[in-house]
Design brief:
With about 450 residues, the chain is mainly alpha-helical. The chain has a two-stranded antiparallel ribbon with strand order 1-2. It contains 16 helices and two strands. The radius of gyration is 56 Å and the shape is elongated. Among the domains are: about 80 residues, no CATH class; about 40 residues, no CATH class.
Length: about 450
């Protein structure tokens, strides 16, 4: 039973294959019978398969099949360029309306009339002298119309006297009226517009030997022979010279990081720019130029502008000490700078009085804080309020004592003093300690030796 089913299925498949084969053969035979005539030479290979150009019962699909093969024309239509994109009918009509085939191998299906062709629908408009030029002058047989070159140089290079030295953009000087008619070249369209005195210079002065490419646009390229500075100020001549006249030269130093003020405005360029070109980094600090004029020999540092002005280096220097942590008041205002600033710079100068005023009188018995008693109005003028500034107010006979009478320890880091009477009056104790050390129970500060009264 199974073998019989397989045999039947195989027979059916074979029958269908044979039927399809004869159907295709019959269709090809039918197509050849109804074909109106041979195709042109360019389409001859398509005669074996009509479906390459035709769809049964769908004539409107034929144009899509044409454009599928002629991709360049399809691209022109899409971009609206050349004949098939710019000419209204060619851009919309079916291809078969203008290019009907099946007229034989030698049939002309392009149907282009050169005498009546409207060149305005092409990418290259025929103007002036081009309008009377024969088609064959530009459209040679071996090149398709669409591939015809459009640059002036492509057609006119045989008559081009510059031999390519001026490039291939002929329309910069020539126009379509006549090739021999040269128009004025607009130098503004280049990277070097001719202004000032340059506008009157003959072309050959800069473009010697009709060399136009690679010509330097830097001033030094032409004016190096006129550089009296011999390159010391660099190659940017336009920094000082103008294009109206090479002389006189002028440089606006205010546009730099170092505007010239006061005495600097009168200094010649070579005074600062000694052998170094302008476009190199030149030091702008005072010490770089005035080091030899520094009478302090570096003891006051290198920031000369804190005391000196650019109006005159040798005038009396003035430094505003109020801007520092140590304003100069009293007698300090007339002290020469070198008396305090003895190091190579301002930094590190001590601010304590003892650093300048050696303690030869107290010998350290009253500590190092001189400002507790002394002030900048005069070293000999001193005042100390023992009642307000200490924990031991002076009363009675204590007020008339000399400071050193109590403060006897020399070179002490910190002033210390016992406030108990016994600390100072131990040698005056006639009781020899039998009444203890609280002397104030019987004695007063008016006079320790005065008779004591019992309380």
């Amino acid at each position: 039973m199974f073998r019989r089913a397989v045999t039947v299925a195989f027979a059916i498949a074979a029958s269908l294959a044979i039927t399809a084969h004869w159907a295709a053969k019959s269709q090809n035979l039918f197509e050849k019978l109804v074909m109106p005539g041979p195709l042109v030479e360019g389409h001859a290979q398509l005669e074996k398969d009509c479906t390459k150009c035709h769809v049964l019962f769908a004539r409107e699909s034929q144009t899509n099949l044409c454009l599928a093969c002629h991709k360049e024309v399809a691209a022109d239509r899409l971009a609206r360029r050349r004949l098939h994109g710019r000419q209204t009918e060619a851009a919309k009509r079916d291809c078969r309306i203008c290019h009907s085939d099946h007229k034989g191998r030698n049939a002309d299906i392009v149907q282009l009339d050169r005498e009546t062709f409207d060149h305005t629908v092409a990418n290259f408009q025929l103007k002036a002298a081009h309008a009377s030029v024969a088609c064959d002058k530009c459209h040679v047989q071996s090149v398709k119309f669409r591939d015809t070159p459009q640059l002036c140089f492509d057609c006119h290079k045989a008559k081009e006297p510059h031999k390519g030295a001026l490039g291939q953009k002929c329309d910069g000087c020539h126009d379509e009226t006549a090739w021999t008619r040269v128009k004025t070249f607009d130098h503004k369209a280049t990277k070097f517009p001719l202004v000032g005195a340059h506008a009157r210079v003959a072309c050959a002065v800069c473009h010697a030997g009709e060399r136009y490419r690679g010509v330097s646009t830097a001033c030094i390229g032409c004016h190096q022979i006129q550089d009296v500075h011999a390159g010391r100020f660099g190659a940017k001549c336009e920094s000082c010279h103008g294009d109206s006249k090479w002389k006189p030269a002028r440089f606006n130093h205010d546009k730099t990081k170092f505007p010239l003020r006061g005495g600097h405005a009168k200094v010649k360029c070579e005074g600062c720019h000694t052998g170094s070109p302008l476009d190199s980094k030149l030091a702008t600090d005072c010490a770089s130029c005035h080091k030899k004029d520094d009478p302090h020999k570096g003891r006051l540092g290198s920031r000369c502008e804190q005391c000196h002005r650019d109006s005159s280096w040798r005038k009396t220097a003035a430094f505003d000490h109020e801007l520092t942590r140590f304003p100069l008041i009293g007698r300090h205002a007339v002290v020469p700078c070198e008396e305090c600033h003895r190091s190579a710079s301002y930094k590190g100068t001590p601010l304590a009085c003892a650093s300048c005023h050696k303690d030869q009188h107290h010998q350290g018995r009253l500590g190092k804080d001189c400002a507790l008693c002394h002030n900048p109005n005069g070293w000999a003028r001193w005042r100390f309020d023992h009642d307000a500034q200490t924990k031991y107010p002076l009363t009675g006979a204590h007020r008339g004592l000399n400071c050193h009478a109590c403060h006897i320890a020399k070179n002490g880091e910190k002033v210390t003093l016992q406030s108990a009477c016994y600390g100072c009056h131990r040698s005056d104790d006639v009781h020899q300690g039998s009444f203890g050390r609280a002397c104030e129970r019987c004695h007063e500060t008016e006079s320790f030796k005065r008779g004591a009264r019992a309380r």
